[in-house]
Amino acid sequence: MTLLRFILIAAATAYLVILLVMYLQQRNLQYFPSRLGTPPGELGLRGVDEERISTPDGETIVLWYAPAKPGLPTILFFHGNAGELAGRAARMAFYQAQGFGALFVSYRGYGASTGAISEQGLITDARAAYEFLVSRGVAPGMIAVVGESLGTGVAVQLAAQAPVGAVALEAPYTATVDVAADIYWWLPVRWLMKDQFLSREVISNVTAPLLVQHGAADRIIPAAQGQRLFALANEPKQLVIIPGAGHDVIGSPEVWSRELEFFRERIKPQ
What we know:
This protein is an alpha/beta fold. It has helices spanning 3-24, 26-30, 89-97, 119-135, 150-161, 176-183, 189-192, 199-202, 223-232, 253-266, and strands at residues 32-33, 49-54, 60-66, 74-78, 82-83, 101-106, 143-148, 166-170, 210-215, 237-242.
């Protein structure tokens, strides 16, 4: 065996091993949950009930629910891929202070919710949370869906399947597989990725008013992806690109305020 042939075989073997490891560990590279399950009261939140509901496939997920003041929408919120609801307590308090209702969803595998994380599982959780709100007397047209980062894919899937009053997406992607393909350009990601969250394929089914906000300097999900998804969406829609901002726009009260104003304009009491 020549040295060159040995090097080629060794390189090919190493590549296949890396490929196998990446395939088997892909969800550990996509989702970063914490599992503390801290109740809202321990975080200083008042008027927020912690609910536990069963999903159609037998899991139990945790919801944080604060009813809206009369005439205001209820925000159905889907968080990003890291942490848990405890890291979004300030957002919940912000919505409450403005009189908006809020239902925060702890996906399966996050916080105190049971189950293993997967794309279909998260979408199932979203629909169960939506049905919970409707069962509490919230009209579909008074539900404002908000998704941050990973949660934008969940928000788009839900709004494509069920009637809602409006949708706001913070740092959205065209698909998680598009993000991964840019990062792991040297792997056949499009063939191997399980949870692809193809928002670009279902956004045309969303008919509710849409607000997209994205940081121009976002290095995790490039603003170009948010712009492409926006271009595929139906009217009425609004795009806000925030100069100099990164992925941290999802934690910005300025971004949250803009969403609430959008909802006030687009959702009228029913």
